[in-house]
Amino acid sequence: MNITPLVKTLSLLTVCNLISTKAITQTYLSEERESLRGIEAFKVETFIQKVDSEIHQRGLTKSQLKTDVELRFRTAGIKVLTKNDLSQNGSMDYPFLLVYVQIIPAKLSEVTLGYAYSIDLSFYQNIILYREPSIAIRAITWNISYTGIAPYETSIRSIRENVINLVDTFMNGYLAVNPKR
After folding, report:
1. Are 163 and 119 in contact (CB under 8 A)?
2. φ and ψ at residue 117, rounded to 5 degrees
3. How far is CA 159 from CA 60, 95, 122, in A?
4. What is the pLDDT of residue 25?
5. Running DSSP on this structure, what letter comes out for residue 152?
6. Among 88, 48, 41, 40, which residue's Cα sits nearest to residue 68?
7. Confidence at residue 85, expressed as pLDDT on a 0 to 100 scale
8. Residue 130 phi, psi (nearest 5)
């Protein structure tokens, strides 16, 4: 079985997607980052939707992604709320960044050649309706997505790297309106 043409095709699709995602991101950030102004801290939530358990066995877990993301923010000096912070204040109204990853195996017969995946970062916070100020709802105020395909051997690394790339995009937008003092 010759899988080289398939791997080349998957790699080309990933590169094309990365280029289009960068262009969309730059436009989006300039319009939406104002919704992040004045946010001093937030929590991080992660969710992985997978079709098979192998991805978990190979090391891609919710807790690993959460650690990756939180470490990135803390290294940049951005306060991430801990369980202790949340339990002390007893409020569910904190803004949060949801990192949502969907993964589907790309198979030929019974052999997994790689994975198709999508990553979605959504920032949720409470907002007040302009037309009715007494109504406050939780809504997505900032969002970015990425879709990719990765060969089996590098799939875990590719997914984690692309999560961090999107986190960096979010972080750049956040820091643009909340500069360090």
Report:
1. yes
2. -150, 155
3. 9, 25, 17
4. 47
5. G
6. 48
7. 80
8. -60, -45
CB 48 within 8 A of CB 140: no
| Residue 34 DSSP symbol | G
Cα gap 94→75, rounded to integer Å: 21
pLDDT of residue 112: 82
pLDDT at 5: 54
What span, in angstroms and rounded, lies between the C-alpha atoms of 44 and 42? 7
Residues 47-84: pLDDT tens digits?
Answer: 999 777 788 888 899 999 999 999 999 999 999 998 88
Which two tokens mark 89? 């204040």
Query: Domain 4-177, what architecture?
Result: 3-Layer(aba) Sandwich (3.40)
Whether the CB-CB separation of 48 and 144 falls below 8 Å is answered with: no
Distances (CA, A) of 151 to 133, 154, 169: 50, 6, 24
The residue ranges of the chain whose pLDDT is under 50 are 20, 23-27
Output the pLDDT for position 147.
Answer: 95
Three-state DSSP state, 35: helix
Give CA–CA dist 12/15, Å, rounded. Answer: 5
At a CB cut-off of 8 Å and minimum separation 6, what does 89 contact?
A: none
> Where do the domains of the chain lie?
4-177
CB 92: neighbour CB atoms within 10 A? 9
